[in-house]
Specification:
Layout lengths: L20 E6 L4 E7 L2 E4 L7 H7 L6 E4 L9 E2 L6 E6 L3 H13 L6 H12 L2 H4 L5 H12 L5 H7 L4 E6 L10 E4 L6 E2 L2 E7 L5 E9 L1 E2 H6 L4 H5 L5 E9 L6 H5 L2 E7 L5 E7 L7 H9 L8 E4 L24 E6 L3 E9 L10 H10 L6
Parallel strand pairs: 6-16, 8-18
Antiparallel strand pairs: 1-2, 1-5, 1-13, 2-3, 3-4, 6-7, 9-12, 10-11, 10-16, 11-13, 14-15, 14-17, 17-18
Helix pairs in contact: 2-3, 2-6
């Protein structure tokens, strides 16, 4: 722990003493929800056995005091969600939209990316950034791009009336702080996606936010949008954490709207990539993304919602024109001033620890501990 921020080893932000943070911890008995409140750690398992159940209570209070944060072993931190569905919104930033168009037109071939990027940017200029999705101006831009043969399904969700909302990862499959994050072993063009993630209860209202890495396989999704499931949902391919910062008088949705997210990738080969994303440039308001996620669906255990990213790396790593792609051993660090720091090490999905603790195992564990209501 650092002298000025003893919570840094857990990934907590500098002002953690003024906030309320919800997470999960691998105790000797099994996974337990924990709450950091007023600078102290509380075991919440006897208030509610899961994070989803705690959020559904509406008011999170009580718990068994465990002491100062140094009682927590950083190696035992888990992803801060459990029974929530993991949803994600894609192409919510203009720059991200352009990169998706490039992937599509390159058909997953990184060698064509640079030429396409130049052509599309010259044709579009800065117009996409200023267009409100679903507006008459967006429709006019769409008509122009169709005439020029540059329209794309990615631009449809970037500036059209409907956001892209997809299921990123199965319940209980996410990884947390310090864990390996997985990239398919047969992918040759991929990148991290640092994002702010909203945590919503069964009513669709956000109760807080955390950080996430929604790994993107540019070659798979670029070949066909129908490969989205294979590109997004793989072993260890979704990280969240380190904690959920709950909304209160000192941290609100307006802080989410203005959040800056930074990211570094440090490779064992000496390569270093730095990037940043700011929620100030998101095309759709976070509340609109929540509404669209809930418009024709229910989530009785709540959901986590990735809000998308501005970050789309084009910096070459190995050879000119190839751009960026991960290598095993890359350390990915995602940070935001009010949410803390999420760090993961890249491995292939085949080499990352297998996901074996599913719903059946969780409920069997909770039953043995006497934590399930009669």
């Amino acid at each position: 722990m650092t002298k000025n921020n003893p919570g840094a080893v857990l990934g907590l932000p500098e002002d953690w003493r003024q906030g309320t943070f919800l997470g999960r911890y691998e105790s000797d008995e099994g996974p337990s929800p924990i709450l950091i409140r007023d600078g102290l750690v509380h075991d919440m398992a006897h208030v509610a056995p899961t994070v989803a159940a705690l959020v559904a209570l509406g008011k999170i209070s009580g718990g068994t005091p465990l002491g100062e944060i140094d009682v927590l072993d950083p190696a035992r931190l888990l992803s801060p969600v459990d029974l929530q569905c993991i949803k994600a919104c894609g192409v919510t930033f203009a720059v991200s939209a352009l990169e998706r168009v490039i992937e599509e037109r390159a058909r997953g071939d990184y060698t064509k990316a640079a030429e396409l990027r130049t052509r599309i940017e010259e044709a579009l200029g800065g117009s996409v950034r200023s267009v409100v999705p679903g507006s008459p101006e967006a429709q006019a831009l769409k008509d122009t791009l169709i005439e020029e043969g540059l329209w794309s399904q990615y631009l449809e969700v970037a500036i059209g009336p409907d956001a892209e909302v997809f299921t990123k990862s199965p319940v209980l499959s996410t990884v947390g702080q310090g864990a390996m994050i997985g990239v398919r072993s047969d992918s040759t063009w991929n990148n991290p996606e640092p994002e702010v993630v909203l945590i919503a209860g069964p009513d669709g209202r956000a109760v807080g936010a955390t950080l996430g890495n929604d790994v993107n396989l540019r070659d798979f999704e670029g070949r066909s949008a129908l490969l989205l499931g294979k590109a997004k949902d793989n072993n260890a391919s979704c990280s969240l954490g380190p904690f959920i910062r709950l909304f209160d008088t000192g941290y609100t949705m307006d802080d989410v709207r203005t959040a800056d997210v930074t990211m570094t990738v440090e490779g064992t080969d000496g390569y270093r990539l730095e990037g940043a994303s700011t929620m100030r440039e998101i095309s759709r308001d976070p509340e609109d993304l929540l509404r669209q996620t809930m418009s024709e669906h229910q989530y009785p255990d709540g959901f986590a919602l990735f809000c998308g990213t501005l970050f789309a790396p084009t910096q070459d790593r190995d050879e000119p024109g190839r751009g960026f792609t991960h290598k095993p051993g890359d350390v990915v660090t995602i940070s935001s001033q009010r949410l803390g720091t999420l760090t993961n090490t890249v491995a292939t999905s085949k080499d990352a620890p297998a996901w074996t603790f599913g719903l059946s195992a969780l409920f069997a564990n909770l039953a043995r501990r006497g934590l399930l209501p009669a």
